[in-house]
Amino acid sequence: MRKIQMVDLQGQYQGIKERVDRSIRDVVASAAFINGPEVHAFQAELEKYLGVKHVIPCANGTDALQIAMMGLGLKPGDEVITADFTFAATVEVIALLGLTPVLVDVDPVSFNIDLDAVEKAITPKTKAIVPVHLFGLAAEMDALMDLAKQHDLYVIEDNAQGIGASYTHKDGSKSKTGTIGHVASTSFFPSKNLGCYGDGGAIFTNDDELAHTIRGIVNHGMYKRYHHDVVGVNSRLDSIQATVLRAKLPNLDGYNAARQTAARKYTAAFKGIENIITPTGSCDDCPFICDTCDCHVFHQYTLRVVNTDRDALAKHLNEQGIPCGVYYPIPLHKQKAYVDERYNEADFPVTNQLVKEVISLPMHTELDDEQINFITNTVIHFVQGS
Ligand SMILES: *Cc1c(COP(=O)(O)O)cnc(C)c1O
């Protein structure tokens, strides 16, 4: 059996090596390292792929979130609601900008932000909601957009884990995640579903005016050379990263399909096993794992193990040569940087439980059946024995 990796970027590289090597050499030869033609070409290709009017590349996914919030003109004191169960970048930029983070609980099945909890958290100071398409599963966007509209709030989609996923609207039409809210952010960190070979990120929006504002913000607040109209930042995607992303973008649907195939095999193996709860899709058609849509692109394949010592399972898997991850082990509202006396433990029953039960298995485009069988057998054996 090949060595099992949490993420297999070397294996993926072998499939695109020629194109990647050639285009990196071309960028080096052209010396157009920043804002070169490769960045513009990638931007246009991603706009077309997503079906969104504007993609604004930037330096990483955390910057993308921050710049989206700056572009919307959010001001200190404004409250921004986001999920308690996610990567810290989301809450970090809210706090950095002097905005007030308001963390709310998530849904136990989808792991995404809980709509009732969002509604309860809305106050006259609330300005925006940040849903995260966590682990690659589209959040409940229609209901969220309705709620936002009712209360005149912005919706900023954190699509760092969801690129390529589709959301099916109530009327049956589909949109790619990251194109539904007022603005969205994504990350091209190497291990994301569309990753470059360094850092990278982008902001998406269908709003022309907001896109214009954001294009200035990423470039020191300049709309005309050396005229600084607003306080901006320096946040750029470089040409070498853009050219890697151009090589990968045509394969993104194939990469996501490979992840979904691996996920289906995992789920089939775990079916009926007591104490294991497998991840699920978001639409009515896919109580199991959706064959018919792309609502889940499995950035992570995350199990809940109940009545089981999750940490002992993780240790056992590692001992058997199976890498795994715990995303995330601590609710954000309990992180030292974000504790706030306004939070009430009784408001976070789901996150407080999930952090004890979740475990993410190896998930990438190169998993083979032998590896998947070994992983699932090892997990099942442990869970049944304890
Ligand atoms: C990775 C990630 C980010 C941050 O992206 P970087 O490119 O690492 O800055 C933000 N939000 C979520 C949900 C992520 O998974």
TrEMBL record:
Pfam families: DegT_DnrJ_EryC1. The modification N6-(pyridoxal phosphate)lysine is found at residue 192. Keywords: Pyridoxal phosphate. GO terms for molecular function: pyridoxal phosphate binding; transaminase activity. The active site is at 192 (proton acceptor). GO terms for biological process: polysaccharide biosynthetic process. InterPro entries: DegT/StrS_aminotransferase (IPR000653), PyrdxlP-dep_Trfase (IPR015424), PyrdxlP-dep_Trfase_major (IPR015421), PyrdxlP-dep_Trfase_small (IPR015422). SUPFAM superfamilies: PLP-dependent transferases. Belongs to the DegT/DnrJ/EryC1 family. This is Transcriptional regulator. It comes from Aureitalea marina. The lineage of its organism: Bacteria, Pseudomonadati, Bacteroidota, Flavobacteriia, Flavobacteriales.
